[in-house]
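Take our chain:
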Amino acid sequence: MARTFHHVDLKLITPRFDSKLTDLVIDLDYLRKKRIEGTTPYIIFLQLKGIFHFLESLGSARIEGNRTTVAEFIETQLEHKLKKEENILEIENMDKAMDFIDSSIKNSIPIDHAFIRELHKLTVKDLSFPPHGEGDRTPGVYRQGSISISGSNHVPPEAVRVQDYMDELIAFINQKDPFKYDLIKAAIAHHRFVWIHPFSNGNGRTVRLFTYAMLVKQEFHVEQGNRIINPTAIFCGDRDKYNQLLSFADSGKEESILNWCEYVLSGLKQEIEKIDKLTEYDYLKKEILLPTIIYSLERENITELESKILKKTVEKRIIQASDINEFFPNKSPQEISRQINRLKDKKMLQPESQGARKYVIKFGNNVLLRGIIKFLGEKGFLPVKD
């Protein structure tokens, strides 16, 4: 028998006071208000944010079948190729879309039709059309035909109803409800977007960006001083569970919707608590940064002298030329400055602030990245595994 579309109302659901979901709402509201008070310098923490963003983009693309490994993606970034393979371009599109979200929410741009359409445009930009690629013939345009969801029994609404359902969804996320419902609304909206499937292709990648935007708007965001830097990694770790719980929620039954919300909020809390470790510099230094320098030296990605300067930088957090005099006996200050400039050119040191002559380690776009990823993975921080 042919499957048919069944309407389900979009509504806010209130969990029981004694439920795990209520506990999660309370815990996450506390974490949202709690500012970053760790010892990791903010400029270093922002580098970690950048790494987690591209890992999240990779994980989101892999949910949709992209087979790029973490190692392959890292090497592509280090090679700085002008022309990228399509699987890499798909991941970079999502990373750029996350930057768009950060700047847009910071500038108080609303999450509306134009915003969502722009997310979709960025997601599918320059990608080949199905079945050969993950692009879309009509970027940023709601679909004009019927669509099916691979691996799901749900039949999305007919194209003529997409605009109305999206109007309803946007009104839902922007309506003024008590703050305690923010995260429940974000989880419900994620499912509803997938339920509508508003675009011809790229819906999965777009909805995860859409959810990131909602969380940023709710101030789960590094720029406001909060801890979350990798919010939708919760969807990347177990693709089957993610799709299964989405499918259960398609029934519209309150219990299934609440189970979906609990899954989303539980994963979000775990991600925040995991990232908290990286705000403590002693942990970051001992478990990630110093091992990275040793690993890079062993692989001959850096020289012995470079490793000494980088270790000194990590130990002191911030260095200036006088801090590395010991490595240059009988050398002039000019020679020391030249060595610092070499490391700046290799993007291994960066000024503490613009124009400053004090420096911190830099690791997001150079050979140190290999070690950073290795040790983040060993400590369980990666949202995806090869």
Observations:
- The chain has a mean pLDDT of 90.
- Residues 281-378 form a domain with the Arc Repressor Mutant, subunit A fold (CATH 1.10.10).
- The radius of gyration is 23 Å.
- Residues 330 and 336 are 11 Å apart (CA to CA).
